[in-house]
Amino acid sequence: MHSGKSSLILTLLNFLDDTGAVMIDGVDSSNIPRQVSRSLVTTVSQGLAELPGSVRFTILPTSKDSGPVNDATLNNALERVGLLNHISSHGGLDAPLADMGLSHGQRQLLAIARAVLHKMEHNSSILFVDEAARAVDIKTATAMQRSIDEFFGDCTTISISHSAENIASSDIVVSISDGRITSIVRR
């Protein structure tokens, strides 16, 4: 059932027009230029798009202004999400992503590594997590949450989830149904 959670994220990123005001840290998000809002925000979505190319190509930040990122930085991000050994044993950073044999959970961890690199490049202050732990096992969900807490602890994190376990550490929980906020609970 679609309640509007993903639409809220798209509105916050200025991909969808809204009829009201979406405020982030006291600023109407529609007043932030789209390119600026995209650099201030890091996203981890339900699935990592499998683009043709190498692991390096997949996880590198996409900004035209980004300078070269050295292998040590890339490997550090992969190690911290628990994927470096797997990637290294399957050909390393320059091997095709399609040859990695990654499970869904490993692909989500790769998405977090990519998000970490994006945050490092842009010093983003907001993290959107859109059902990232959906369809992963408990061990992977725990690893994902640990990585998010470690790397994005200084960020405002907005998580979309149907699972109470995935939002257990949230300070504020907003429930949405049929495109409307139905409750706000502060913990």
Written overview of the protein:
This protein has a single domain (5-186), classed as P-loop containing nucleotide triphosphate hydrolases (Rossmann fold), CATH 3.40.50.300. The strands form three sheets. A three-stranded parallel beta sheet has the order 3-4-5, with helices on both faces. It has helices at residues 5-12, 34-40, 55-59, 71-80, 84-89, 104-122, 138-152; strands at 23-24, 27-28, 41-44, 126-130, 156-160, 172-177, 180-186. The two termini are 26 Å apart. The protein is built from seven helices and seven strands, in the order αββαβααααβαβββ. The model has no long low-confidence stretch (mean pLDDT 82). α4 crosses α6 (104-122) and α6 runs parallel beside α7. The chain is an alpha/beta fold and 187 residues long.
Low-confidence stretches: none
Beta content comes to 15-25%
CATH-defined architecture: 3-Layer(aba) Sandwich
CATH superfamily: P-loop containing nucleotide triphosphate hydrolases
Helix content: 25-40%
Q: How does the major sheet shape up?
A: 3 strands, parallel
| Average pLDDT for all residues | 82
Q: What Rg is obtained from the alpha carbons, in whole angstroms?
A: 17 Å
Oligomer: single chain
List the total number of helices. 7
Strands of the widest sheet, in order across it, are: 3-4-5
CATH fold-level assignment: Rossmann fold
Number of DSSP strand runs: 7
The assigned structural class equals alpha/beta
- How would the global form be characterised? globular
Signal peptide: 1-21
Domain ABC transporter: 3-132
Keywords: ATP-binding, Nucleotide-binding, Signal
GO molecular function, one term: ATP hydrolysis activity
